[in-house]
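Sample intake sheet
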Amino acid sequence: MDVKTICLAMIADSEIVSTSAIDYAVSMAEQARAHLSCRLAPSELNLPSARVLPMVRALVDEVNAERLAAARDLQAKIETAARLAGISCDCEIYQDPYLEARDKAVDGARASDIVVLPQARGALSSETGLIEAILFGCGRPAIVVPDGWAKGAAPKRVMVAWDGGGRAARAVGDALPLLTRADTVEVVCVTDGAASNLAGSDIARHLSRHCRELRLLDLPITHGDAGRALLDHLGAGDQTDLLVMGAFVHSRLFQLVLGGVTSAMLEGARIPVFYSY
């Protein structure tokens, strides 16, 4: 897949915004000579009491004006970065009630090859809601970039989290252009201790025909938590540049109650994660 349009989607309703996702999207577009399409969704505060209480209305208007100003400042930063990188860029700002703004961002992201998002600041944050809406409803793969990531968007060492399922297979297919350019690809099969590396042997043989160097690893589950096992493995070294995985094998409610690999990665990964659903 040749990447020609990269979407950067952000909530952008405060002055505290991670620039890592911006830098990643610009770098990725520059390398691919692709167009950067930005979708910023500074949600609109909407309180029923503001309709009848002038003081509340004034406060609501002030908050919404500040959010819009922050989004416009962010737009200017993105457009400047794109101009310096020599790439084309367009930017849309949606200031509507949160669900409407989020859904407009999702609609806009569909007209792209891949979506770049900043990592969320909490399981119930508005950023998490946008990430989940993109993963579930956009129909495009997404890369979630953690705050502080500074290694750029050309991964040399990529890890594939493989469970043999359809979403993992789709993620591998969607990420294949990145996998073929990496120096090393490591396929990690999280097992319960009873399975062997035969669980990933088929995908390893397939990827060996594409990739420069391929490794296959069994990763035993620790304390019954596959997400924690992956995070611990990632934390054991600092060489991995990208994790590729399928998203949300279980329902979101199931993951909120019992935890899950995707939830663990969304909240705890310190490297960019490539998701497909």
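Comment: The longest strand covers residues 184-191. Confidence is low (pLDDT under 50) at residues 253-259.
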